[in-house]
Design brief:
Number of strands: 22
Distance between the termini: 67 Å
Strand order of the largest sheet: 19-18-5-6-9-10-11-20
Order of helices and strands: HHEHEEEEEEEEEEEEEEEEEEEEEH
Helix content: 10-25%
Largest sheet: 8 strands, mixed
Oligomer: single chain
Shape: globular
Radius of gyration: 22 Å
Strand content: 25-35%
Length: about 425
C-alpha cells in the first residue's frame, strides 16, 4: 500500500511540475539585442553613498499596500513582483492618471529607526555586481526604422533629499532613476540622464567611457544621474541646491537586472505591453500604478518637518512612481514633458569636489567614505556614532556653492517655487 501511495504522490508532483513548465514555456519572450549590453552605462556611486542600489522584491517584503495612508483591505498577500499590479484596483487607478493614484507601498517599520533594508546592497568590488539582489530593470523600445531606446532603470530603497538653508528636504522611501541610450541602426547616438524632476541629454560621443560603455555618476543621497563628477548646482529662486558626485564604488547594473521589450499596443492592454526576455521574469510590478514608498507624512507626525511652515516643502515626501511613468515611448531623447532640454555635444567642466562625510539616521552607524578615482576601486566602509533622535539626515558638501541665507524677499519668492525643491 505504501509503495502505491508514494507512486501516486510522485506522479502528482510530476504532473504539477509539467503543467508549470508548460505554462512558462507558452509565455511569450523577447530577445534583447546584444548592443543593449555592449553599450550599457556603468554607474559610479558617490564615495560617501550609504543608500545603495536595492533589491526590488526586498522593497515589497518590507512594505504593505496602503491607500490614503490606511492599510488596504484587498490586494494580493504577500506582495510579489509577479502580482503587484493587482493593487491598482484598490484606488481605481488608470494609466492616464498615474500621478493621482493613491496607493503607497508603505514601510512596515519606522524608517527613522535602524531599518537596514533601506541601505541596499554594496556592489562587489571586483565584479561590480549587486550579488543576490535584482536592482535594475532594462526596458527596450524598438520604434522601428532602426531607432531603439534602451532604458536602464535603477532602484534604490531610499532617497536622501538635498539640503536647503540647513534643512534636508525631499527624503522619500523608494527611488527610481534611469538613463536611456538611443540607438540608430544598432549604434548609440545619445544618452539621457534623469535628474530630479528633469535631466540632461548628451551625444554618446561626448561621454566618458570604459571601453564602449558610457560612465554615469550617481549623486550622493538623491541618486540623480550626471555625466561628470563634482558639485552640480541649480538655483531655485534665491536658493542654490547642490548635488555631489564622485568615482566611488562602481556598479554594473546589467549583471543583476530583469530584461524586457516594450511595445505600444493601441486599444489593447492599456496601450502598451511588456515582454520579458526569460519566462521566469516577473512583469506585474512594471504595470503597478501606485507609489514605491510611503505617502508624505502629515505635519502631525513627529518625523515630519514643514519647511519654514510654508506648507509647500517637507522633509519627507511621497515615494516615486515606477518605470511606466518615465516616458517610455518618447519621441526625442529627452522625455516628451521635459523643459528646455536639448542634446548636448560637450560635457560640462567638473566643479567642486565630494568630500568624506557621514550620512546618518536614528540608531544607524553605517557610512561609506573614500577618495577612489580608479575604475572599480572599492570605497571603504567605516562607522560613526552620529545619530539623530528625530530621524533626520544631514550632509556636508563643499564646492561651487551652498545654500544662501534667505531674505524676506527671498522667502516670498521661495514660497512660489519650493514645490520644485521638494520633488527631489
Amino acid at each position: 500500500m505504501l509503495p502505491l501511495l508514494v507512486f501516486l504522490l510522485l506522479a502528482t508532483f510530476q504532473r504539477i511540475h509539467a503543467i508549470r513548465e508548460a505554462t512558462l514555456q507558452s509565455r511569450q519572450t523577447a530577445p534583447i539585442p546584444d548592443f543593449v549590453k555592449t553599450y550599457a552605462p556603468l554607474v559610479y556611486l558617490d564615495q560617501n553613498e550609504v543608500y545603495l542600489p536595492s533589491d526590488l522584491q526586498a522593497q515589497l517584503d518590507n512594505t504593505f499596500a496602503a491607500s490614503n495612508v490606511s492599510a488596504a483591505t484587498n490586494g494580493s498577500s504577500p506582495l510579489l513582483l509577479s502580482n503587484l499590479d493587482q493593487l491598482n484596483g484598490i484606488a481605481d487607478c488608470t494609466v492616464n492618471s498615474i500621478d493621482a493614484c493613491a496607493i503607497f507601498l508603505t514601510s512596515k517599520d519606522n524608517i527613522t529607526s535602524n531599518s537596514q533594508w533601506l541601505y541596499g546592497v554594496l556592489p562587489d568590488p571586483i565584479t561590480h555586481e549587486t550579488r543576490g539582489a535584482k536592482t535594475c530593470a532594462i526596458i527596450v523600445n524598438d520604434h522601428g526604422n532602426g531607432v531603439v531606446d534602451a532604458f536602464y532603470m535603477y532602484f534604490y530603497a531610499f532617497n536622501l533629499g538635498n539640503t536647503v538653508n540647513g534643512q534636508v528636504l525631499g527624503n522619500h522611501v523608494g527611488d527610481w532613476e534611469h538613463t536611456m541610450v538611443r540607438f540608430i541602426n544598432e549604434r548609440p547616438t545619445a544618452v539621457w540622464f534623469s535628474q530630479h524632476e528633469n535631466g540632461q541629454a548628451f551625444t554618446y560621443s561626448a561621454l566618458s567611457k570604459n571601453g564602449t560603455r558610457p560612465i554615469v555618476y550617481s549623486a550622493l543621497g538623491t541618486h540623480a544621474n550626471f555625466a561628470v563628477p563634482g558639485t552640480h548646482s541649480r538655483t531655485i529662486a534665491t536658493v542654490i541646491v547642490n548635488d555631489t558626485t564622485s568615482a566611488g564604488r562602481l556598479w554594473d547594473p546589467i549583471l543583476a537586472a530583469y530584461y524586457y521589450a516594450y511595445t505600444v499596443t493601441p486599444s489593447v492592454n492599456g496601450g502598451f505591453n511588456f515582454t520579458p526576455a526569460e519566462t521566469s521574469t516577473p512583469i506585474s510590478y512594471l504595470t503597478f500604478l501606485g507609489r514605491w514608498g510611503d505617502a508624505r507624512y502629515p505635519t502631525t507626525d513627529p518625523r515630519q518637518v514643514d519647511f519654514l511652515n510654508l506648507h509647500v516643502a517637507f522633509e519627507y515626501e511621497s515615494g516615486p512612481t515606477g518605470p511606466l511613468d518615465k516616458s517610455l515611448n518618447r519621441t526625442e531623447v529627452c522625455p516628451d514633458n521635459s523643459r528646455g532640454c536639448t542634446t548636448l555635444s560637450a560635457l560640462p567642466g567638473s566643479s567642486g569636489s565630494s568630500v568624506p562625510v557621514t550620512v546618518s539616521r536614528a540608531s544607524s552607524s553605517r557610512s561609506v567614505t573614500g577618495t577612489s578615482t580608479e575604475l572599480g576601486a572599492p570605497a571603504r566602509e567605516t562607522s560613526s556614532a552620529t545619530t539623530s533622535p528625530t530621524g533626520t539626515a544631514s550632509t556636508a558638501v563643499s564646492g561651487a556653492g551652498g545654500a544662501r541665507p534667505l531674505s524676506r524677499m527671498g522667502l516670498f519668492v521661495v514660497k512660489s517655487v519650493l514645490v520644485a525643491v521638494a520633488v527631489l
